[in-house]
């Protein structure tokens, strides 16, 4: 198992602290492996095997623990057998009916340290938020960054000889889910694997959890989003598009479906922000995908989508680095990303290649912003090193590797 040190280091800071460690992220992004690595870390620190209660609820082995009472009893038995503090590691805990009641009781009744993973944002909503207010910390796991992707590619005989540029082309095409590096490097196999993940997320985390009956309509909405990466639109835009195809539905229904997809970590909504007025705008948002490989497995890869794909990659990288990200409105122009972290802000424009025709268009919105925060134009160019009015041009691969 390749260690994802960034996340493990975050979690290490909270070992034996009186907060529940909640590890979230879409299915197959690596949460289970990270939980196994936490177990190995505890063993390396001298924790006895009897002090670790580890359960993966996707395994039939633990089918009998899928209600909170039986889970509570199993942990009670483990506490009696352990010699010291019990470390409770529960993988895909949302599969347990009423799990939040059991987890809250563990915290109250036992000397324990609790780690849970889940594939739905509703994990931290409702009863859990009420019961555990101020008593948990969330660590969100994303698909692989490009640096992590390169490390995983080194473990695959068919990838390790590829150049940085070839790996980046594959990163654009196949996405960042770790499992793609564990198989023969073949496009058909990879896309079949990604389609299976997509269908599993759709069935378990969207359709089943939200009691959605019109699955064909849901898939039409998803495909519309996938086909419009990097474009601003609204629920009404989607509603009107589907009505033109003979499917009548309200904007409220569209919003409900979009929210369900967000909760399953398939898509990410990005609001627009008026830079001059310093306020959020309520219309014309963008949606980016949590993994581009799934998009291409579902609707195919098209080279003419490159601008939106590059935006998607940079958006996810900003999230991984702890930024809050919005789309910037600067007068009539758009700034691709306004990224904030603590007192830091970065303005970013993303384009495929800078040419004589589009250079002004990419730089001018940034030039009209009067503050002194960093402003960057990212492109795939390798020879250009433009510095215009303090606005720097950077190569996207270099930016991702820095």
Q: Distance between the terminal alpha carbons, to the nearest Å?
A: 24 Å
Low-confidence stretches: none
Q: How would you characterize the largest beta sheet?
A: 8 strands, mixed
- Average pLDDT works out at 94
Please write the string of helix (H) and strand (E) elements.
HEHEHEHEHEHHHHHHEEHHEEEHEEEH
Large-scale geometry: globular
Quote the beta fraction.
Answer: 15-25%
Task: Describe, in short, the structure shown.
The chain has 402 residues and is an alpha/beta fold. It contains 15 helices and 13 strands.
SSE map:
Blueprint: H1 5-12, E1 20-24, H2 31-44, E2 52-56, H3 68-81, E3 86-91, H4 99-109, E4 112-118, H5 127-131, E5 136-140, H6 146-153, H7 164-174, H8 187-210, H9 215-227, H10 235-244, H11 251-263, E6 267-274, E7 279-289, H12 292-299, H13 306-320, E8 324-330, E9 333-341, E10 344-350, H14 359-367, E11 374-379, E12 387-388, E13 391-395, H15 396-401
Structural summary, described in words:
The structure is a single chain. This protein has 402 residues and is an alpha/beta fold. The protein has 15 helices and 13 strands. The chain has helices spanning 5-12, 31-44, 68-81, 99-109, 127-131, 146-153, 164-174, 187-210, 215-227, 235-244, 251-263, 292-299, 306-320, 359-367, 396-401; strands at residues 20-24, 52-56, 86-91, 112-118, 136-140, 267-274, 279-289, 324-330, 333-341, 344-350, 374-379, 387-388, 391-395. It has an eight-stranded mixed β-sheet. Strand 12 (387-388) and strand 13 form a beta hairpin. The protein starts with a helix and ends with a helix. 36% of the residues are buried.
